[in-house]
Amino acid sequence: MPFFSSDKNIFEKRLAERTIQVIERDGRRELRFGNHITQSAISLQDPERLLLEYTRAMMVGFLFVRKPVSILHIGLGAGSLPRFIHHHFPACRQVVVENSPEVIEVAFRYFFLPLSPKLQVIEGEGETYLANAKGRFDLIFLDAFLAEGAPGQVETIPFFETAREHLAPGGWLVNNVWGSNRANLKRVTENLALTFANLYALSVHSGSNMIFFCGKSGSAQSLAELLQAAEALAENIPVEFEKYIKKLGRARPRVTGPTVGRQVFA
Predict the structure, then answer these.
(1) pLDDT in tens, 171-195
(2) Alpha helices in 34-100 (DSSP H)
(3) What residues are paired with 183 via a beta bridge?
(4) Bridge partners of 93?
């Protein structure tokens, strides 16, 4: 059901594990899973724009991998990030793995996900796909959520190790984690730090989302290198890269949670 008087419910399907809804409000269309939390959103006037800030923050992954060729997404939602990358980086080959056929249908039907040979959408579990995948990827975007958070199996060390092994040399994992559950955030941070040689974090929406950038190799990025890459991308990509670089920091697990905020560049 809608949560605001201005909400218009244009699609709803109740399933055993979640309710899938498409809501329109104030010129935007949102994907929700039966509660007030917006999983994905687009502007109906400008659907190619990344409307939600956490998706724009995830694009910082392109500063760590300058010219990615192959990209894997685990979790589709409304397909905002794959659609944006398809539009701005048409040479990239993208694979999206989503376990809900209903979410896949909604992304194509209501959120303008393009049919393209450069964008393959596979119905299945992300961990199963990775365990059997033959190829490697320059970037892996992990953004898999149910109504109240990410499935636990995609936040474990074995899953992160499998993801690391399927990164190409110099590849990076970009992981969106809800930051409101501090105990879970601490656990995920520790698991990532034990798995990846390089770990950066970016807090979005006062910590409600934490975006982790996880490097396979041990070579760190300098501030000058990131700013140079941001300047080049910002000419054609509508993402406020410099703003996010200023908030980017090395993530170090500790008892009370990760240290994130000030830049610590090698």
Answers:
(1) 999 999 987 788 888 999 999 999 9
(2) 53-58, 61-64, 80-88
(3) none
(4) 70
Residue 153 lies in a domain: yes
What are 236's two structure tokens?
Answer: 């054609």
DSSP lists the bridge partners of residue 140 as 72, 173
Whether residue 29 is contained in a domain is answered as no
Q: Taking CA 264 as the corner, what is the angle to CA 259 and CA 266, rounded to the nearest 5 degrees?
A: 140
What pLDDT, on a 0 to 100 scale, did the predictor assign at position 207?
Answer: 67
Residue 30 tokens, joined: 């949102």
Count of residues making up the chain? 266
Beta pairing partners, 141: 73, 174
Q: What is the pLDDT of residue 147?
A: 42
Phi and psi angles of residue 172, each rounded to the nearest 5 degrees, phi first: -135, 145
- Residue 127 · residue 150 · CB < 8 Å: no
- Sign of the alpha-carbon torsion through 266, 210, 76, 108: negative
Distance CA 89, CA 39 (A): 24
Helices 182-195 and 157-165, interaxial angle, to 10°? Answer: 40
* Lowest model confidence (mean pLDDT) among 15-29, 165-179, 183-197, 240-254: 240-254
C-alpha–C-alpha distance, residues 209 and 235, integer Å: 26
pTM tops 0.85, yes or no: yes
Quickly count: other Cβ atoms within 10 Å of residue 59's Cβ.
Answer: 23
Range of the domain at 194: 53-81+92-99+119-250
Q: What is the CATH number of the domain that holds 186?
A: 3.40.50.150
Phi, psi angle pair for 263, to nearest 5°: -70, 140
CA 240 to chain centre: 16
Query: Per the domain annotation, does 108 fall within a domain?
Result: no
| Overall domain count for the chain | 1
Q: How high is the pLDDT of residue 241?
A: 95
Q: Which two tokens stand for residue 67?
A: 């010219």
